[in-house]
Amino acid sequence: MNFETVLAGLPDAVIAVDDALRVVFWNAAAEALTGRSSRRAEGRSLKELLPPDASLTRHLAETVRTGESRGEGETTLLTPDGHTIPVSIVTAPLFDHGGTVGAAVAVLRDISRIRELEAEVRRGETLAAAGRMAVGLAHEIRNPLGAIRGAVQLLARELAPGSRFGEYTQVLIQEVDRVNRIIEQLLDLARPVQLRTGPLNLHQLLERVSLLAAEGALAQGVTIVRRYDPSLPPILGDEDRLVQVFHNLVRNALDAMKGGGRLTLTTRISLSPVFAKMDLGAGQRSMVEVQVTDEGTGIPARVQAKVFDPFFTTKERGLGLGLALCHRILEEHKGAVRIDSVEGRGTTVTCFLPIAR
């Protein structure tokens, strides 16, 4: 058996170095995880490829020096494009015939999906609590709101035409309606998401959303750019619910670009090592990616992990329910959503959806 072939095909990244920390093996999973090819990595010092204080470099150096294994349950790996990926690391020494350490090997596992699943569990608990609260509030608040609205309408009829108080009654009715809309959004989090799924042409769906946003984009000086994969197969989804998701994401992108710019819609078959195939309960299914990219203000790194939490918002008058509902709808589709943002440069929201069979 060719053990190098076995190691090359492992789903975890395997990196081996000699006693001078020069790379002697770099499998395909290591290429995908680090963003560096084996051709460029092998033969070079690990310190040339990674920061000197990187956990991987430090653990391999200690293993070569002491002949002992090292491990870290969670650390980060910096990619060439500046992203950090949470990984676990285990190292082990490789001894030569004389019993001295001649090399060392490290196994790295991408644990980003595990962390995302943990965050989704916490988010689900928050959503459930918000739902219970919404159901209770809806009954207690809607009845008096209805009475207030009715009383204001009767008052408006009693006022003389042209009365200066007529403007106040109109404001009262508008504000009551606004509170009712807030309650409806809360109830959306409480209600079960009923999906009517079927094969969908994703590009037609995105064009429907683009048409809805066209006037607002034109008014703000925003150009909608389409980068569609013409070979994209149909996806499996609920059209109305997905229109709701993408309309929300496009509206958020426009809100972030008050000074104009480009809003780019991208579709492609997913090549993500984490999301390219997902188990929908009846086996693995390939996924597509839909990206909504803006050139707006971006989201501060310290709050990016919270953007899908109910009631969290970076907008002055936002409720923080739109993205929470988008996350829930995509979750019900057995998909996923991810945000990448650089403050001052823009945001990309990537949605993963299953291909129809």
So, the CATH homologous superfamily of the largest domain?
Answer: Histidine kinase-like ATPase, C-terminal domain
Helix content: 40-55%
Low-confidence parts lasting 5 or more residues at pLDDT below 50? none
Distance between the termini: 37 Å
Structural class: alpha+beta
CATH class category label of the largest domain: Alpha Beta
What is the gyration radius calculated from CA atoms? 26 Å
Let me know the largest β-sheet: 6 strands, mixed
- Average pLDDT across residues? 82
Structure annotation, total helices:
10
Order of helices and strands: HEEHHHHEEEHHEHEEHEEEHEE
CATH topology of the largest domain: Heat Shock Protein 90
Count of separate structural domains: 3
Strand content: 25-35%
CATH architecture type of the largest domain: 2-Layer Sandwich
Q: What overall geometry do the principal axes of the alpha carbons give?
A: elongated
The number of distinct β-strands equals: 13
